[in-house]
From TrEMBL, chain A:
NCBIfam families: NDH_I_N (TIGR01770). GO terms for cellular component: membrane. This is Proton-translocating NADH-quinone oxidoreductase, chain N. It is found in: Membrane.
TrEMBL record, chain B:
It is a multi-pass membrane protein. The chain crosses the membrane at residues 6-23, 30-54, 60-84. The lineage of its organism: Archaea, Methanobacteriati, Methanobacteriota, Stenosarchaea group, Halobacteria. One of its GO terms (cellular component) is NADH dehydrogenase complex. The keyword DNA damage does not apply. The keyword Transmembrane helix applies. Its main location: membrane. PANTHER family: NADH-UBIQUINONE OXIDOREDUCTASE CHAIN 4L (PTHR11434:SF16), NADH-UBIQUINONE OXIDOREDUCTASE SUBUNIT ND4L (PTHR11434). Keywords: Membrane, Oxidoreductase, Transmembrane, Transmembrane helix, Transport. It comes from Halomicrobium mukohataei. This is NADH-quinone oxidoreductase subunit NuoK. GO terms for biological process: ATP synthesis coupled electron transport. It is an enzyme of class 1 (oxidoreductase). One of its GO terms (molecular function) is oxidoreductase activity, acting on NAD(P)H.
Length: 496, 100, 691
């Protein structure tokens, strides 16, 4: 068997980057191309290749320590390829695949398609790279690589007021947050004299200047909270998700959130996990507060929405709160790998079920039948298959045992039990119960309510349907196949 | 040699001015400029600490940050442009069709 | 291969016939009847083979299918226990079920009833459930099949669901027996909880490690280690458990005060009544007591309760039977009364007498119901006895077989009922005299009630016979009755012969008087050393030992000497029975009998209304349970729902507030972010000691 060169371990990210460049090339040759078979095809192939490579590497154990106990690291330890990086590459690439397939129909009659696809893949490259980042500098660059195309993507419908307003808010909050994040990085650098995670961890002994380190850590929390749409940096999320084209909402709320979390996992579990840091600034406590507030704000605000897409946007904030348990329940003890792992599991399952739900919204937008709950009345009479898929997504999001969301939430709950942070578990239960209420409203509207007169659907777009149904299938299959996910996630978490 | 604390104070002042601008200015362009101030406050820190520790990673990172700031402004200006087209204004508080 | 390897098929065959009738009955020539007949015949053959094997001294007690395996504790399983009691009951159930299936050809098919596949499916499932119940090796499995039996009786009683009566009767049967089963279920759970710590197999009926045996060790030998008796003395707690299980028994076996469903259950088709009364539903209760007799024999209080309830029910039901006008109603009250005798026997230590009476009763009550069915066919579904009369000459086969059954029921020598009823009363009498203290007195009181009931039994039985068959035909229908075919006469003939002769299987008095070894049933159930199944500890020898040496101290006392007491007891019961028959004869064996019930005055009203049992139970439901339920509903609607609704409106209200945070103005967002950051910095700066 041929031993591949070490740099090929980065293949998933490199494949995404390559795809982005090819698409950019198409764009520069033919800026007004509306050949969406070609564009979606290239983007889809690239993303599938990246996802497949990630799975191959995970199965082959590329991200596991070699015999000398070393993980694959590149560019003077600035990038690392471990199971966690591959796990998130897979997550990002599979979400991207679904989004691209759905966009084939969604973007069919819209302008600037080549730019759309190249920006999407470029953002995905950044997110995937973020999973490999092993230093604050690379992390910031990757973060911006993910963010900047996202701003432009939200604004891609230039003449749509909602799209522009969403982009403006996303961009302004994002710019502020990245400023805060960068300032935090500069302070941590000031306290340790290093940007690489392991070096930062090594430099953090008892003698560090408390104020500088403390402010720096809290500002980094802010940068992470922005990317993951956690309170109080979540303000952009409801508007950005509502105003953006629905496939982009799906992409941002699933993949971008996951990228934010992998950054958080790396920074906090690798660089800042130490008694010296925790004595200065108890960031676990910060995350506990943020987790609970995020859960409550997201779910409570979602409960009274009239617009389904905005409801999903708030629910996405709520789910960020759930995943924050993966950080907030860290104790420094033996349960940490399980706690982090359970956060990763939820992100993966969420990647499919939430993407699916937003793509269903994309389908509804494609049909142009309105955005409120009432507009969904009786939709199942016209599109039973898609509505069944949406029901799977919603119930799985709520944590009912119809999809993988049941097990991932269950694992989060067990994580709180094992680490003794019962209040997080209680908040998880209360909010899941509340979420069932507003998810069920959609299901009720689709299946039980009488359709408005004249509700008729004429087109059944193949790309959107494929994406929605595949997402539903994966969500359901994650129920029996959850063992594989949980084992990979736990192994990955234990390697940090 | 000027002590590092002075640079820290300078950057903190610049950061605060940036935040102040973000909070009070409604013009999108000035908002952008304020964000630039925040980013540059961080750059001052990076360069100063780099000088203090005698390693170059901070300075190099500052260069990256400047590049990224430029890219950010480019995207930002694009968004401000479409904002103007859609809302006939670049007042950031005008665009409030989505809320609650 | 031994017979035991085929034992599961005994219950599975009728189950298959259930499936066949349910899904394929429409397309079969007799709508599923033939499948049922074949299945029950197969069960009968297998039961006979099993009985022969058991006669050879072999028994069987194995778990077959474990559906919940316990880690380091008991598991829940389906299994089969076959000892002589089981073998006997399997024979009875499959035999009666076979005859009922054959009879149904005449009663249902020939009469052109609709919905026959449903009927035969019900019969098949009913038979299968009862057979499964009979050879259940543990109390949980017994409970499961007990419930299935209840379900099937519901389905069959309500067979004619388009009429007004049957659905209501079915519901009543279901609810009243379910009321008893509720206690049974608690008892089952209680037994598992109590014995789980002391044995790996707390649910089993037989063998070392089964709950009756562990309980016996606890009480007789004081080995209470691992038992969980909830702080009670073991004997007190076992009494409670026994009484809980007895709740299910009293519901199913229609013992006072849960007997009210049974007369109403006459709304079901007559063959179903025969099956319910003779071999399945009602027999299940008494059989359960016999099955776990080792447990009941330990606690004098439960014995006393069983004996008293039995004696009282025997008398109480017999008096109500006296005034009934419908043929099947009389039989229904006689069933209640006869099961009272069995309970009386079990309570007073006459285990063999009870099983004996269960056997003979199965035969003669099946005979009487099938005979009644024949009369009903002949009378074009007229059931009032006052509309009949003079049928003797028109349907001789029915008459003579019915007469045999009636003589057996009345307890006239030498018909089957005499021998078994006499033994029941004799056992109660001698144990009443022999046992010291209150328990002996209770036995004597129960005996007195049982004895008195003999008179009424003779009276109502022959009132029924004379009114139905003798005298002049009182209506046009009775003058020209509808003929019946072989499929009705055949079962009647078989049962008629058996009703006359089955008593000879246990001629215990004859043995005592002459020394002839003719008490075959006694030997069958003894389980003495060397019988091959003493290890199961379910033989009478073991029970006798428990009764003697346990806390009950049931002993034999013969005030007139062995022979004298025996003869006195037999003469007394026979005399009363004959007196009852003669009284009926003098009143009703006239060409044109008239109602004499008015002479009873106010007692007639009381009897006609069944002692207002239904009325007070309805009052209990409407006057007590209903207001209680309404109060609970109020509590639920007001407090519980109020709290829930309150939480939801608070949530929604706070949700509508929380969303206002999202003002839509991006500058505000920047402000909120800054404030939050500053707050975090200040709080953590102060606690972290940065300044």
């Amino acid at each position: 068997m041929v031993q591949l060169p070490t740099w090929t371990a980065l293949s998933p990210t490199l494949l995404l980057g390559l795809t982005a460049i090819v698409l950019l090339l198409v764009d520069s040759i033919d800026p007004d191309s509306s050949n969406n078979e070609l564009l979606a095809g290239v983007a889809g192939l690239g993303s599938i290749a990246a996802a497949a490579t990630s799975v191959w590497f995970i199965v082959a154990g590329t991200g596991l320590p070699a015999e000398n106990g070393e993980l694959i690291s590149l560019f003077d330890d600035q990038l690392v390829v471990d199971q966690m990086a591959l796990f998130f590459s897979f997550l990002v690439a599979s979400v991207l695949t679904l989004v691209v397939v759905a966009s084939y129909d969604y973007m069919a009659d819209k302008a600037r398609q080549a730019k759309y696809y190249s920006l999407t893949v470029m953002a995905a490259t950044g997110m995937s790279l973020l999973g490999s980042a092993n230093g604050l500098a690379v992390a910031f660059v990757a973060l911006e690589l993910a963010s900047l195309p996202s701003y432009a993507l939200v604004a891609i419908l230039k003449t749509n007021k909602g799209s522009v307003e969403a982009a403006l808010k996303y961009f302004l909050v994002g710019a502020l947050s990245s400023g805060v994040f960068l300032y935090g990085i500069s302070l941590v650098y000031g306290a340790t004299g290093s940007l690489q995670f392991d070096a930062v961890a090594a430099a953090l002994t008892d003698g560090v200047p408390a104020g500088i380190l403390g402010i720096g850590v809290l500002m980094i929390v802010g940068g992470v909270a922005f990317k993951t749409a956690s309170v109080p940096f979540h303000f952009w999320a409801p508007e950005a998700y509502e105003g953006a084209p629905a496939p982009i909402s799906a992409f941002l709320s699933s993949a971008s959130k996951a990228a934010g979390f992998v950054l958080a996992f790396r920074v906090f579990a690798t660089a800042l996990m130490g008694d010296a840091v925790l004595a200065v600034v108890d960031w676990v406590l910060v995350f506990q507060v943020l987790a609970i507030v995020t859960m409550f704000v997201g779910n409570f605000a979602a409960a009274t929405q009239e617009n389904v897409k905005r409801m999903l946007a708030y629910s996405s904030v709520g789910h960020a709160g759930y995943v924050l348990i993966g950080l907030a329940a860290l104790t420094g003890g033996s349960s940490d790998a399980y706690v982090l792992g359970s956060g990763m599991m939820h992100l993966l399952v969420y990647g499919f079920m939430n993407t699916g739900a937003f793509l269903f919204i994309a389908l509804v937008e494609y049909w142009d039948i309105g955005r409120t709950f009432e507009d969904y009345n009786g939709l199942a009479t016209q599109a039973p298959l898609a509505c069944a898929a949406m029901t799977v997504f919603l119930f799985s999001l709520a944590g009912l045992p119809i999809g993988g969301g049941f097990f991932s939430k269950f694992n989060l709950l067990m994580a709180t039990v094992r680490s003794g942070t019962w209040f997080l578990g209680a908040a998880l239960i209360v909010n899941s119960a509340l979420s069932l209420y507003y998810y069920t409203r959609v299901v009720k509207a689709m299946w039980i309510e009488e359709p408005a007169s004249g509700l008729e659907i004429e087109r059944y777009p193949i790309g959107l349907y494929t994406a929605v149904l595949v997402a539903a299938l994966v969500t359901v299959l994650l129920l029996p196949g959850f063992d594989a996910v949980s084992q990979t996630a736990e192994t990955a978490a234990s390697l940090l | 040699m000027i002590p590092t604390q002075y640079y820290l104070l300078l950057s903190a002042a610049v950061f605060c001015i940036g935040i102040f601008g973000v909070l009070t200015r409604r013009n999108a362009l000035i908002f952008l400029m304020s964000v630039e101030l925040i980013l540059n406050a961080a750059n001052i820190n990076l360069v100063a600490f780099s000088f203090q520790y005698g390693n170059l990673s901070g300075q190099v990172f500052a260069l990256f940050a400047m590049g990224l700031a430029a890219a950010e402004v480019a995207v930002g200006l694009g968004i401000v442009l479409v904002l103007y087209r859609n809302f006939s204004d670049i007042d950031v508080t005008e665009a409030t069709t989505m809320r609650w | 291969m031994t017979a035991f390897d085929y034992a599961p098929a005994i219950a599975l065959l009728p189950f298959v016939s259930f499936l066949v009738a349910l899904f394929g009955g429409q397309y079969l020539p007799k709508k599923g009847a033939l499948a049922g007949i074949a299945a029950t015949a197969g069960s009968l053959v297998l039961s006979a083979w099993v009985a022969l094997t058991v006669a050879g001294g072999q028994t069987y007690n194995e778990a077959l299918y474990t559906f919940t395996a316990g880690l380091e504790t008991f598991d829940l399983h389906l299994g089969i226990l076959i000892d002589p009691l089981t073998a006997l009951m399997l024979l009875i159930v499959s035999f009666i079920a076979l005859l009922v299936h054959v009879f149904s050809l005449g009663y249902m098919n020939d009469e052109g009833e609709t919905g026959l596949p449903r009927y035969y499916a019900g019969l098949g499932l009913f038979t299968a459930s009862m057979l499964g119940f009979v050879y259940a090796d543990n109390i949980l499995m017994a409970f499961m099949f007990f419930e299935l039996v209840g379900l099937c009786s519901y389905l069959l009683i309500g067979f004619n669901f388009r009429e007004a009566g049957p659905p209501s009767a079915a519901k009543k049967a279901f609810l009243v027996t379910r009321f008893g089963d509720y206690f049974f279920l608690i008892g089952v759970v209680g037994i598992f909880v109590t014995f789980a710590g002391a044995t790996q197999t707390p649910g089993l009926f037989a063998g070392e490690g089964s709950f009756p045996v562990v309980a016996e060790h606890a009480i007789v030998d004081g080995a209470t280690e691992g038992l969980n008796t909830f702080g009670f003395e073991p004997q007190t707690w076992f009494t409670i458990l026994g009484l809980l299980v007895l709740g299910g028994v009293m519901g199913k076996s229609a013992q006072f005060p849960l007997h009210t469903w049974l007369p109403d259950a006459m709304e079901g088709p007559t063959p179903v009544s025969a099956l319910i009364h003779a071999a399945t539903m009602v027999a299940a209760g008494v059989y359960l007591v016999a099955r776990m007799y080792g447990f009941y024999a330990l606690t004098p209080t439960t014995l006393a309760v069983i004996a008293l309830v039995g004696g009282f029910t025997a008398l109480f039901a017999a008096t109500m039977g006296v005034v009934k006008q419908e043929l099947k109603q009389v039989l229904a009250y006689s069933t209640i009364s006869q099961y009272g005798y069995m309970m009386l026997a079990l309570g007073s230590g006459g285990y063999i007498a009870a099983v004996f009476h269960l056997t003979t009763h199965a035969v003669f009550k099946a005979l009487l119901f099938l005979g009644a069915g024949a009369v009903i066919i002949a009378m074009h579904h007229e059931e009032n006895m006052w509309e009949m009369g003079g049928l003797k000459d028109k349907m001789p086969v029915t008459y003579y077989t019915f007469l045999a059954g009636s003589l057996a029921l009345a307890g006239i020598v030498p018909f089957a009922g005499f021998w078994s009823k006499d033994e029941v009363l004799y056992e109660a009498l001698i144990h009443g005299f022999g046992t010291e203290g209150g328990l002996g007195t209770v036995f004597l009181v129960a005996y007195a009630m049982g004895l008195l009931a003999v008179f009424f039994t003779g009276f109502y039985t022959f009132r029924m016979v004379y009114l139905t068959f003798h005298g002049e035909a009182r209506t046009e229908t009775a003058k020209k009755p509808h003929g019946v075919r072989w499929n009705v006469k055949g079962p009647l003939a078989v049962l008629g012969i058996l009703a006359t002769t089955i008593g000879f299987v246990n001629l215990a008095p004859v043995k005592k008087l002459t020394g002839l070894e003719v008490d075959f049933l006694h030997k069958w159930l003894l389980g003495a050393e060397g019988s091959g199944w003493e290890a199961l500890l379910t033989g009478y020898e073991h029970y006798e030992h428990v009764l003697h040496d346990g806390p009950a101290h049931v002993l034999v006392g013969e005030p007139l000497g062995a022979t004298g007491t025996l003869i006195a007891s037999a003469l007394l019961s026979l005399g009363l029975a004959v007196a009852g028959v003669l009284a009926a004869r003098s009143l009703y064996k006239v060409p044109e009998p008239v109602e004499h019930t008015d002479k009873l005055g106010s007692i007639k009203t009381l009897l006609m209304h069944n002692y207002y049992q239904d009325e007070y139970q309805v009052w209990l439901a409407t006057g007590f349970t209903y207001p209680l339920s309404r109060a609970a509903d109020k509590f639920d609607q007001g407090v519980i729902d109020g709290v829930v609704n309150g939480i939801s409106s608070v949530s929604l209200f706070s949700g509508s507030r929380v969303r206002r945070l999202q003002t839509g103005v991006v500058t505000n967002y920047a402000l909120f972010i800054t404030i939050a950051l500053v707050v975090l910095l200040v709080v953590f700066g102060l606690t972290g000691g940065w300044f």
